[in-house]
Specification:
The protein is mainly alpha-helical. The protein has helices at about 15-30, 45, 50-70, 90-110, 110-120, 145-150; strands at about 90, 130.
């Protein structure tokens, strides 16, 4: 499961669809509708927010907006509108780690998008997140091969 801190505009088609599905799964976990993934590290930041369900619904609404902007037909009834938006934080180190994680995926899945995303100097986070100084988040499961990929790219 990967619930990106990066703005969904950077994702390729496969990535955006996977993000939608995985975030819906996360929503089900937070609602107590599934037994699996309850302790998944990607959910920690949502669980720690003031309102985990509102946070995941707000996250989904932004993914839905991106999908709609691209002409995709995601089901708006899968999440609840959020009346009072909230902000969560993400560290700059986490955003940077995810950037290289995404580049690694795009290099083989969508070389054209890879070249475009690789040129980006300042990354936008998903709109629910405010970027703060800091290293990779404690909840991240670090993939060692990404460290060497980052050094090469």
């Amino acid at each position: 499961m990967r619930i990106w801190s990066l703005h969904p505009k950077y994702l390729d088609v496969k990535g955006l669809v996977a993000l939608w599905r995985e975030t819906l799964l996360a929503k089900h976990v937070l609602e107590g509708k599934t037994k699996g993934y309850r302790n998944h590290p990607q959910l920690d930041r949502f669980k720690k927010s003031k309102s985990p369900l509102n946070a995941i619904n707000q996250y989904l609404s932004e993914v839905y907006k991106e999908a709609t902007n691209r002409g995709y037909n995601f089901d708006v009834t899968k999440f609840n509108p959020v009346e009072k938006p909230l902000k969560m934080t993400v560290t700059a180190g986490q955003l940077n780690y995810e950037y290289y994680h995404l580049l690694n995926k795009l290099k083989t899945r969508d070389p054209k998008l890879y070249k475009e995303v690789k040129k980006i100097k300042i990354l936008d986070a998903h709109p629910i997140f405010k970027v703060v100084n800091g290293a990779i988040e404690d909840w991240e499961v670090i993939i060692k091969s990404l460290i060497s990929f980052r050094e090469k790219n």
